[in-house]
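Recall from the previous lesson that a structure prediction takes nothing but the amino acid sequence as input. Here we apply that procedure to Protein Ves from Pandoraea horticolens. The sequence below is the only information supplied.
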Amino acid sequence: MIASHNLIALDRVSAEPWKNGGGVTRTLAAHDSSPSQWRVSLAEITQDGPYSRFDGVVRHSLIVAGHGIVLRHGSDTVVLAPGVPTQYDGEPGWEASLIDGACQALNVMVDRTRWLARVETLALETPAEFVPRIGSVLVVFSGDGRCEIRRAGERCVMPPRTFVTIDADALPLTCTVTSSALEDAMPCAVVAIEPLA
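The prediction returns the following C-alpha cells.
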C-alpha cells in the first residue's frame, strides 16, 4: 500500500549525533536484522572529519543540500557533487572535506553480498517508472518538491519534505514530480533496494 497515512515528514524523524561530532543522521528506513543489512538515512554534515568504516558494505550518497564533499583515502578520491547519486566502497577509512560549508546527504548502505541499491533523482513533470523485483523495497524522498506516486490504481501525493517506504511486489510504479521550489531546491529521489537472490 502507498496510502497517504504511510507518509512521514522529515522533521518527525529524530536526529542521531555522529560519534565524531561531525554531524547528525536521521534514519528513514532500515532492514530489521541486527546488524542491519541495509539502511537509508539523511545526514547533516557540519565539519570535516573521518567517515565510519563498514566492512562488506556498498555506500551510495546523494547531496541534497550544500556544495558537496570530497572523500579521500590514500590515493583514492571520491567527489560527492550536489544532485549526483554516487556509489563508493564502505570499507576504506574515508576522510571527508566539505566544499564551502555544511551539507545534507541522502545516504544508502547495503550488504554487498545480499542487496543491490540504486538511487535515482527525478526531473520535474517527467514520469519515472520502476519495476522492482519481488522482495525489493522502495524509499521515495520528495525533497522540496511535490511528488505523485501511482501503482495499480493507487495514488499518493507527497508534500515537500516527506518520504514513504514501499514494500515492492513486482507491480510497476510511477513517480512524477508535479511541482518544485527554487532551482537549488532539495531534489526528489527514489531509492530502490533489491535482493541479490
